[in-house]
Structures are given as structure tokens and as C-alpha cells.
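Long-time lurker, first post. I've been practising inverse folding by hand and with some scripts of my own, and I keep getting stuck on stretches where the C-alpha cells seem ambiguous. Below is the full C-alpha cell string for one chain I'm working on. Before anyone asks, I'm not after the true native sequence, just a reasonable design that respects the backbone. If someone could post their per-position residues I'd love to compare against what I wrote down in my notebook.
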């Protein structure tokens, strides 16, 4: 019997290369886990019965284009859409033998922090099915936490890998902007979107990052990595300068149990040999969220203009082309994309552009500079990933601002294009707490090293007790 709840990708791969299991047997084991547990969790929008390749399975967020396999981005407007090409990240996974086991549930067009904005029903948290898994990559993080895939890919625009990784007790990386190709990814906010790994261990995360990262001629924002990805092994933090930004650690709304876990992890950094000090990000935390909620919806209003009933998915066809556009969009989009399209269209409109979008771009530069200053003194900055642990389904659906605040700590580094790693660092009221590690551009190796050393010392058990 394969214990898919505990098996890491590295261990799964070792079983394969050691000849103890075939790729088909491994695929079948995860398929069986999906059949058993997914009816309660709803992590998958589509499950693959077969998939080419000789390696281990992987689950892909439904925002990632997969040739001939339904790709909806959690939206009714893309129901039935079959991409005619693979995203670059899909291709790169396949080139390494990884087999797509399914497409994971998500907030519609990656807009949300709980997966409740999916047009196909919410995903539930494997630690407590009455609670959300976070979002928007909640299907990917819940699938890994529940042993339905050894690892997965998500996407992170404003926290959508880091925050659900925190709420599901798994590892999630939002890579440096420009290191992972966006080609074939359904666009939300192009200056922020980035695909990232979801795994059980930091070593698995580093490996999967090495598979997907690097320049892609199809996405001109991508670059060659300045150094090869290193799989972390160090067990200490000697020589590492760890900064604790006050505003990111003392923001309003951080639950006491979250602070307690994170403080203990910071103390552990000291014990592991790091030099720990305080620092400030005076404006990044205050203005990060409002700045994001101008820039991201502006870009979304433009990116989502292509869903008009002509080329993709849903078409509602009354008389006349204008009525077709209107009714297709009215029926196809859920409330949150509609809200973002209106916000973005307003922020970009003549007369308001300078005051909203233009101003937000300037604030973004300030945020970038603040992080750059802090990261001159420190190698890594730490904070909670999410102010709260997983909240009950329905708790924030009536209050968009409360939902947006779930990402108040995850968004600021994203605005600066910086990488962020979330690792589980403890429990509060029996639910996982995530620690966010932020570094300069292209510092993924440093984040992996620090995350791995902490992970060894923390010995967090990634298996949700109710499934054990
Ligand atoms: N929760 C944030 C939003 O709703 C971030 C989403 C994301 O990173 N895709 O926009």
C-alpha cells in the first residue's frame, strides 16, 4: 500500500527509480485517493484517466493551459473550452515525465482568497472540511495536503499560492516575477501573475521550481536564472541575516495564535545561528493592498475583454452581436470578476487614469524601494503569510474587503516583484500557520535553504490528523 498522504515527490520518485513501483501503479494510487477523498473536498475540476509520461503525477491549477484537457479557470464562461496548445509550464513538466493527474479548483479567474468564488463549488480544507483552503489556488494546496497528488502547480498574483499553502499546511512558492513563463496561463494581472510550486517539503519545492523556471521565448518577461537552482541540504542558518519587518508582523487583524507560532519560528532562526533584527516597511503594508486593488483589476479588465462569446467557451446567442457580447459576459462571469472589471475600467477611464492607475504605479515604485532598502540589511524577511488560520466557509463571502484583507501580508512583496516562500510553522487551534520568507529578486536558493533548515527543526507534520 502506498501512503499518498505522507509520500513526498522525492520519495515517490525514489520508488520509481528503484523499480519498487511502476509509474502506472503510482498514478493509480493517487487516482484511488482522489476517488476516495475528493467527493468531500472538491479539489479537482477535471481528473485525467490517463496521461502520458513515465514519471510521477502532478496536479495543475485550472488556470494553466493543457492541450485537449478542459481548462476553465474556475469560470462558467470557459466551460467546455479545450486549449489547442500546452502552457510552457505544462510542457516543461511533461518533458520531465510528470503526468497530469487533473486540473484543480480555484477562485474564478484566480480572483479570491478562499476558492469560494469558483463557479463549480468551493474546495474544502482537508484539516477541517467546514473551513476554506484559502485561494485562489485552494484546489492545488488542498489536493497536496490530502494526498491526492504528490505536488501541484498554482499561480500567485497577490498571494494565491502562498496564502492557501499557509491555510492547508503545505509549502508554496511565489517565484521572482519573470522567472517562470506565463505563456499559456489564463491571464489575470499580467504584471503580477506568476506560476509557483505547491509541495509537502521545501526540497520538493526547489526541485519543481527548477523544472518550470527559466527563460521562455514565448514570454518576453522571462529571463535566464542567474544561478542554477540548488536543492537545499543545510540544517542551520549560520551567516543568514533575518529581518523582521515590524508592520508585516504587527498588522491589524493578525490572530494571536498566528503571531505566537511565527514568533516561535523567529526564535528558532536565532537558535539555528541566524542574526535576527527588526526593520521597517512603513508604507508597503499600509498601501500594498489598495495599490494592488487598483493595478490588478485594471489589468484584469483588459485581460478579460477577450471573453466575449466569439472565441472561447460560453456563447449566449440572442439577436445581434452586441446583445451576444453583453449576455455572454453577464451569464458567464461571476460576481467577483464583474466587480474587478468595473473597478479596473473605472480606474483606467479618461479623467480618472492619473488619479488612480497612474498614482498606484507610483506607489508601487515606493514599495519596491522600501523592500530594496530593507533587503540591503537583511538576506531574508519573515512574517506570517496570512493574518488568520483557515476560516469557516461563508465567513467572508458577503464582505469583499474582509476577503481582500486575507492577502494583506502576502501582497506587498508581490508588488515589488519579489519571491516569497510559505512554509508551515505550527498550529493554532489545530489549524496550520504559515511563515512567509521574502528575499530579493532571484534569491530563491536562499529562501529554499532557510526554509529547509527551519522545516527540519520545526518537524511540522503535514498530514491532517483527521485523514491520518
Ligand atoms: N486574493 C487576491 C485576489 O483576489 C490574490 C489572488 C491571486 O493571487 N490570484 O486578487
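-- Answer (accepted) --
I ran through it position by position. Result:
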Amino acid at each position: 500500500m502506498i501512503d499518498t498522504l505522507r509520500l513526498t515527490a522525492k520519495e515517490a520518485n525514489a520508488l520509481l527509480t528503484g523499480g519498487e513501483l511502476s509509474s502506472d501503479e503510482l498514478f493509480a494510487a493517487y487516482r484511488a485517493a482522489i476517488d476516495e477523498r475528493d467527493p468531500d473536498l472538491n479539489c479537482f475540476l477535471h481528473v485525467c484517466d490517463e496521461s502520458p509520461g513515465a514519471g510521477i503525477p502532478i496536479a495543475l491549477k485550472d488556470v494553466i493551459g493543457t492541450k485537449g484537457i478542459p481548462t476553465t479557470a474556475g469560470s462558467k464562461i470557459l466551460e467546455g473550452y479545450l486549449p489547442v496548445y500546452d502552457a510552457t509550464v505544462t510542457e516543461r513538466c511533461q518533458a520531465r515525465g510528470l503526468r497530469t493527474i487533473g486540473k484543480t479548483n480555484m477562485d474564478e479567474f484566480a480572483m479570491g482568497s478562499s476558492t469560494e468564488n469558483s463557479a463549480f463549488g468551493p474546495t474544502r480544507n482537508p484539516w477541517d472540511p467546514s473551513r476554506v483552503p484559502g485561494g485562489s489556488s485552494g484546489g492545488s494546496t488542498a489536493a497536496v495536503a490530502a494526498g491526492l497528488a504528490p505536488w501541484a502547480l498554482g499561480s500567485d498574483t497577490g498571494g494565491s499560492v502562498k496564502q492557501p499553502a499557509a491555510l492547508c499546511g503545505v509549502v508554496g512558492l511565489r517565484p521572482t516575477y519573470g522567472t517562470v513563463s506565463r505563456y499559456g496561463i489564463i491571464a489575470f494581472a499580467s504584471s503580477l501573475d506568476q506560476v509557483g510550486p505547491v509541495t509537502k517539503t521545501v526540497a520538493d519545492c526547489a526541485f519543481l521550481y527548477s523544472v518550470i523556471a527559466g527563460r521562455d521565448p514565448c514570454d518576453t518577461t522571462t529571463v535566464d536564472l542567474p544561478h542554477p537552482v540548488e536543492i537545499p541540504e543545510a540544517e542551520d542558518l549560520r551567516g543568514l541575516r533575518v529581518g523582521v519587518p515590524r508592520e508585516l508582523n504587527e498588522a491589524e487583524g493578525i490572530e494571536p495564535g498566528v503571531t505566537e507560532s511565527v514568533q516561535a519560528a523567529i526564535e528558532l532562526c536565532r537558535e539555528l545561528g541566524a542574526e535576527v533584527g527588526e526593520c521597517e516597511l512603513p508604507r508597503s503594508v499600509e498601501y500594498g493592498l489598495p495599490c494592488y486593488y487598483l493595478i490588478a483589476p485594471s489589468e484584469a479588465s483588459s485581460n478579460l475583454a477577450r471573453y466575449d462569446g466569439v472565441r472561447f467557451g460560453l456563447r449566449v446567442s440572442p439577436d445581434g452581436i452586441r446583445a451576444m457580447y453583453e449576455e455572454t459576459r453577464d451569464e458567464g462571469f461571476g460576481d467577483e470578476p464583474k466587480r474587478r472589471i468595473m473597478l479596473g475600467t473605472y480606474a483606467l477611464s479618461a479623467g480618472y487614469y492619473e488619479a488612480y492607475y497612474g498614482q498606484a504605479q507610483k506607489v508601487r515604485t515606493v514599495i519596491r524601494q522600501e523592500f530594496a532598502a530593507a533587503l540591503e540589511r537583511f538576506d531574508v524577511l519573515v512574517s506570517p503569510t496570512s493574518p488568520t488560520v483557515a476560516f469557516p466557509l461563508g465567513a467572508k463571502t458577503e464582505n469583499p474587503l474582509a476577503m481582500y484583507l486575507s492577502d494583506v501580508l502576502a501582497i506587498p512583496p508581490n508588488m515589488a516583484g519579489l519571491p516569497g516562500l510559505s512554509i508551515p510553522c505550527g498550529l493554532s487551534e489545530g489549524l496550520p500557520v504559515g511563515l512567509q520568507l521574502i528575499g530579493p529578486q532571484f534569491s530563491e536558493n536562499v529562501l529554499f535553504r532557510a526554509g529547509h533548515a527551519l522545516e527540519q527543526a520545526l518537524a511540522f507534520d503535514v498530514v491532517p490528523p483527521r485523514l491520518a
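A couple of notes from the structure itself: The longest helix spans residues 354-377. The radius of gyration is 21 Å. Happy to go over any region you disagree with.
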